[in-house]
């Protein structure tokens, strides 16, 4: 049973009808969005409206345009900051701008510009490279309210310290404060930066190509789309690029897992079915925080090479921990292949996918999705989000494991796994490096299996072996 007593099939009907109603009433088409992330946002708005069903949200949206405005803000991707992921802007300076410099006039499309932090960052980088005056930038978004904020060029003053650090790490060569004027609690950026920017509403799902561009920037937007819609939007970008144009995506977005990367959905489905036959456990989800590296190493190290289920891991770590150290350490210490998850990556048997720093990792049937939604429990990635999505996708065939940690993240998600009939395992709090997270998990799921750290890997291997044995006897 899913949230609030609705069965899964009924909830999916409600979602489909709600999205159909939104498309027919307001013209916004969210029907191709990634289900796991979409579902969370729809329920967030339903509860925000004091409603307990998605059918109730549909009625409210149809009759109250103000509710639709609030829902649109929830469904729009407005998590952003200036010079987010500084390595991206260094790559622009070192590899992309030298190519743009060969054009007499430059056109750039920032698709999904949100509230403008990204496009002002690009404008500053172009200015410092002497390219801004011959560049026309089109900044588009589905959310008109976000565009109004972007047009103003005004951002919160209390964020300037972080933005200054990002700017410096992105290769900025000036004093960042010279680009804005502080007024009260706001920082207003130099209007000259926006002189060549055209702000316009554009829907990637329903609107077409409107120009040709040497550079298209669309970061952390495709991760919210399902595979079919991703392919359609990538096709739109292809039509909108000049010959040898450049497409810049988010750090963990890739065309390798789309039809444009020659990855077939049929192959993913076949491998998922093969994994289901091999293992009673369809998925293992692990959450860890303080002291988690050693704990995760021990669990993975006990899994045999023939372990038939994919493993997904949310380990709390610094947002700027982008050096791949965690993945390399885990990969060197276990028999399974360990990689950092990419959006829409297949959940192959025996593959370990680790949530990238500063991204939520969500599970869909046979694949994973990434999200830059706001942190939950002060954490991104959030263990609760990983576990809850895994429970909804795999129900009784998911095993959730809560390891050492110093907060309560994972407790609600583990309860969700148990509610859907999955296996709940908690590291013995008395022997954990930090017991707060195991204690919270046990308080939420008293019936969870409590195991010493060195017993957890063997227990997971036994669950898989039991499933494989029963499958071979059938």
Describe this structure in words.
With 474 residues, the protein is of the alpha/beta class. The protein has three domains: 3-75, no CATH class; 86-249, Rossmann fold (3-Layer(aba) Sandwich); 265-466, Rossmann fold, CATH 3.40.50.180. The chain has 16 helices and 17 strands. The chain has helices at 8-26, 35-48, 54-63, 65-75, 86-100, 117-128, 144-152, 160-169, 227-240, 265-278, 292-301, 325-332, 383-394, 411-419, 436-444, 453-473, and strands at 106-111, 135-141, 154-156, 180-183, 186-189, 197-201, 213-218, 241-249, 283-288, 311-315, 337-340, 351-354, 360-364, 367-371, 398-402, 423-427, 449-451. A seven-stranded parallel sheet has the order 11-12-10-9-15-16-17, with helices on both faces. Strands 6-2-1-7-8 form a five-stranded parallel sheet. It has a three-stranded antiparallel sheet with strand order 3-5-4. Helix 3 (54-63) crosses helix 4 (65-75). The radius of gyration is 23 Å and the shape is globular. The model is unreliable at 1-6, 261-279 and 467-474 (pLDDT under 50).
Write out key terms for the chains shown.
474 residues; alpha/beta; Rossmann fold; 3 domains; seven-stranded parallel beta sheet; five-stranded parallel beta sheet; 18% strand; globular
Describe the structure concisely for a colleague.
The chain is an alpha/beta fold and 474 residues long.
Q: Please indicate the count of domains.
A: 3
Task: Catalogue the unreliable spans.
Answer: 1-6, 261-279, 467-474
What share of the residues does DSSP label as strand, in percent? 15-25%
- CATH homologous superfamily placement of the largest domain: Methylesterase CheB, C-terminal domain
CATH architecture field of the largest domain: 3-Layer(aba) Sandwich
CATH topology of the largest domain: Rossmann fold
Task: Tell me the number of helical segments per DSSP (H or I, 4 or more residues long).
Answer: 16
Sum up the overall morphology in one term: globular
Mean pLDDT: 89
Task: State the secondary-structure class.
Answer: alpha/beta
């Amino acid at each position: 049973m899913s949230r609030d007593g609705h069965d899964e099939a009924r909830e999916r009907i409600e979602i489909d009808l709600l999205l159909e109603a939104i498309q027919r009433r307001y013209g916004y088409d969210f029907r191709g969005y990634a289900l796991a992330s979409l579902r969370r946002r729809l329920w967030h708005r339903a509860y925000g409206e004091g409603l307990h069903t998605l059918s109730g949200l549909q009625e409210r949206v149809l009759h109250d345009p103000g509710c639709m405005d609030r829902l649109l803000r929830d469904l729009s991707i407005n998590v952003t900051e200036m010079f987010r992921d500084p390595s991206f802007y260094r790559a622009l300076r070192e590899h992309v701008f030298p190519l743009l410099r060969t054009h007499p006039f430059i056109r750039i499309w920032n698709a999904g510009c949100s509230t403008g932090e990204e496009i002002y960052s690009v404008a500053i980088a172009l200015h410092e490279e002497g390219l801004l005056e011959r560049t026309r930038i089109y900044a588009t978004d589905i959310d008109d309210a976000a565009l109004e904020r972007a047009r103003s060029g005004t951002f919160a003053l209390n964020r300037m310290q972080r933005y200054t650090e990002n700017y410096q790490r992105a290769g900025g060569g000036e004093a960042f404060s010279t680009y804005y004027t502080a007024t009260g609690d706001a920082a207003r950026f130099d209007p000259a930066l926006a002189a060549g920017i055209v702000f316009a509403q554009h829907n990637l799902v329903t609107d077409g190509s409107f120009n040709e561009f040497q550079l298209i920037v669309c970061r952390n937007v495709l991760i919210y789309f399902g595979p079919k819609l991703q392919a359609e939007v990538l096709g739109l970008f292809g039509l909108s690029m000049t010959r040898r144009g450049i497409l810049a995506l988010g750090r963990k977005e890739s065309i390798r897992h789309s039809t444009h990367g020659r990855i077939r959905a049929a192959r993913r489905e076949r491998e998922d079915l093969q994994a289901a036959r091999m293992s009673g456990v369809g998925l293992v989800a692990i959450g860890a925080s303080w002291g988690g590296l050693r704990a995760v190493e021990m669990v993975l190290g006990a899994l045999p090479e023939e372990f038939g289920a994919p493993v997904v891991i949310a380990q709390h770590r610094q947002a700027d921990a982008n050096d791949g150290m965690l993945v390399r350490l885990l990969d060197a210490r276990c028999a399974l292949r360990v990689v950092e998850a990419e959006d829409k990556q297949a959940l192959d048997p025996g593959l370990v996918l680790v949530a990238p720093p500063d991204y939520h990792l969500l599970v869909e049937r046979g694949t994973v999705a990434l999200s830059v939604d706001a942190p939950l429990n002060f954490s991104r990635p959030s263990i609760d989000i990983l576990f809850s999505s895994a429970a909804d996708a795999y129900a009784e065939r998911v095993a959730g494991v809560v390891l050492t940690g110093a907060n309560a993240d994972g407790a609600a998600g583990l309860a969700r796994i148990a509610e859907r009939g999955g296996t709940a395992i908690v590291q013995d709090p008395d022997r954990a490096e930090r017991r707060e997270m195991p204690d919270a998990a046990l308080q939420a799921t008293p019936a969870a299996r409590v195991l010493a750290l060195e017993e957890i890997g063997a227990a997971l291997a036994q669950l898989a072996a039991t499933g494989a044995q029963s499958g071979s006897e059938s």
